[in-house]
Design brief:
TIM Barrel; alpha/beta; binds (4S)-2,6-dioxohexahydropyrimidine-4-carboxylic acid; three-stranded antiparallel beta sheet; binds zinc ion
């Protein structure tokens, strides 16, 4: 096995870059590893319209070193009152790449999300017509549904019917965590794909309770049983163009995680590529890392592949215990551990 691996520059098809000091602290980690990233709109207040997205894109670029080659791809946060004309204009002007469906109260800053998917049918119809991608946080919020079942129930109750109602709409089921999600995506038409995070490839639900409560392993959708992790790993390394890289890197200040009611989110941006490489190697599929990281995403979104390459070399990367973001500290995924790859 060779000691280095050179692949076309990858993209991150799902990331939270935040705002203010947190943005300034974390954006560079994404921009160092990825050429482009789909930036989630769940700020407070959320990015629900074209001027807000333009202003946010400017703040992202201002937070990065001048010469870094990185393009943020903006998303529009869908609310019950989503404005189809604004969405279409934003898409045509090249500001919005996608729109994001958060079921109301499903996760961080989703209170203004969608209460009933039928409310956004006019927006979805327009998106279907113009070829704009819908990114989906796929969990029901029904408190009667066990938290470990919320993704599978969402697929049955919401997503499967949605794909029938809008057969041409391009849909990405974000951060998949279950064998049901894998099966659904595989059996759905080519208009349906999924992103896969490093953490859902590497941890199962036991990681949250390893010798005590582990807030830094908590995210949404929550990690599931080992069996589900295995199904997601097999999907990611399978070579199917329906699965591609999306880190869901979601930084929160250390105190917001280590709290009586800790926030959901895992900050994996600093070493996402090294983590994916580790998983692909364990699965004997290093030769498929490039298509997962750099080809399937742009092809699904209808965007050009990146020029240029990135090289991963065998060696030791020590993950820092915490990272500064202004006055705050953020604990990265696998803090304090050693990884077996170095990104050059
Ligand atoms: O763990 C998560 N964190 N899942 C989400 O869906 C949102 C994200 C965040 O913004 O913190
Ligand atoms: Zn996310």
């Amino acid at each position: 096995m060779s000691d280095s691996l050179t692949i076309r520059r990858p993209d991150d098809w799902h990331v939270h870059l935040r705002d203010g000091e947190m943005l300034t602290g974390v954006a560079v980690y994404t921009a160092r590893q990825f050429a482009r990233a789909i930036v989630m709109p769940n700020l407070s207040p959320p990015v629900t319209n074209l001027p807000a997205a333009q202003a946010y894109r400017k703040r992202i670029m201002a937070a990065l070193p001048k010469r870094i080659d990185f393009t943020p791809l903006m998303t529009c946060y869908l609310t019950d009152g989503a404005d189809s004309a604004d969405l279409a204009r934003g898409f045509e002007e090249g500001v919005f790449t996608a729109a994001k469906l958060y079921p109301a109260h499903a996760t961080t800053n989703s209170a203004q999300g969608v209460t009933d998917v039928e409310k956004i049918f006019p927006a979805l119809r327009r998106m279907e017509q113009i070829g704009m991608v819908l990114c989906v946080h796929g969990e029901v919020t029904d408190p009667d549904i066990d938290i470990f079942d919320r993704e599978a129930v969402f697929i049955d109750r919401v997503l499967d019917p949605l794909t029938r109602e809008f057969p041409q709409l391009k849909i990405v089921l974000e951060h998949i965590t279950t064998e049901q999600a894998v099966e659904f995506v595989l059996s759905a038409p080519d208009t349906v794909a999924a992103t896969v995070t490093p953490h859902h490839l590497m941890i199962d639900r036991n990681a949250m309770f390893d010798g005590g409560i582990r807030p830094h392993a908590y995210c949404l959708p929550v990690a599931k049983r080992e069996r589900h992790k295995q199904a997601v790993r097999q999907a990611a390394v399978s070579g199917s163009p329906k699965f591609f890289l999306g880190t869901d890197s979601a930084p929160h200040a250390r105190g917001e995680k280590e709290s009586a009611c800790g926030c959901a989110g895992i900050f994996n941006a600093p070493h996402a590529l090294e983590c994916y490489a580790e998983v692909f190697e364990e699965e004997g599929a290093l030769d498929r890392l490039e298509s997962f990281a750099s080809e399937h995403g742009p092809r699904f979104y209808g965007l050009p592949l990146n020029e240029g390459t990135v090289t991963l070399r065998r060696g030791q990367t020590k993950v820092r215990k915490q990272i500064a973001a202004g006055e705050e500290r953020v604990v990265p995924f696998r803090a304090g551990e050693s990884l077996g790859w170095v990104v050059e």
